[in-house]
Design a protein that fits this description.
- This protein is mainly beta.
- It has one domain.
- It is built from three helices and eleven strands, in the order αβαβββββββββαβ.
- The strands form two sheets. Strands 7-6-5-2-1-9 form a six-stranded antiparallel sheet, with helices on one face. It has a five-stranded antiparallel sheet with strand order 4-3-11-10-8.
Amino acid sequence: MKKSFLLLVSIIVLMATTACGITKNSSTYVEPAHFTKSEQDLMELISANSNYHFFDFAAQKEFDNMEITMYKLVENNWKVSSFEQYSLEGSTSSTGRIALQFDKLSDGYQTGIQSNKIRGTTNFIPEEEVDTTDMGIYTSTLSERTNFVAEEEIPLAIQIITSKDGVSSYNVEQFQHPDIYAKHNYEHIYAITVRFHEKV
């Protein structure tokens, strides 16, 4: 699984940063990735499924690093489970692609990042083992372009893992209101966000 993820990310994000990938734009944004036909054909060939999530981003010269963070909802508050930072320093602007791969976030996830300044993958496995046997999985991801300013946290994915029926699944923008999720008493709720830091 890890090897196939690395292969997929390496090829897809490389294509995204070459001629027919991401369109340059003066704004700063994160959005669901737009695939060319070649990219779509490649994903079908490698059998990429719904466990893969791709996002395009553009960040201007005032930003010097990007941070990917995973949270778990604990007592009405988001608690950091992991975070990784990627340097954008030295670039007048950066466009690129973020790739996330996960099934149950309770088991961890893999991240692939590539732009004109970043190339790399990371793998996070939580120390805590969580029993999610016979529980349903409900995942929401960023569905439209979202502009941002420095230090603004943009939710990319939110996942509910629960044994309850009739799950209320909200869009990722509700990340800013954890009490909305907490009131349902779902057993496990996770979120992955991206944030761009400004040069100081």
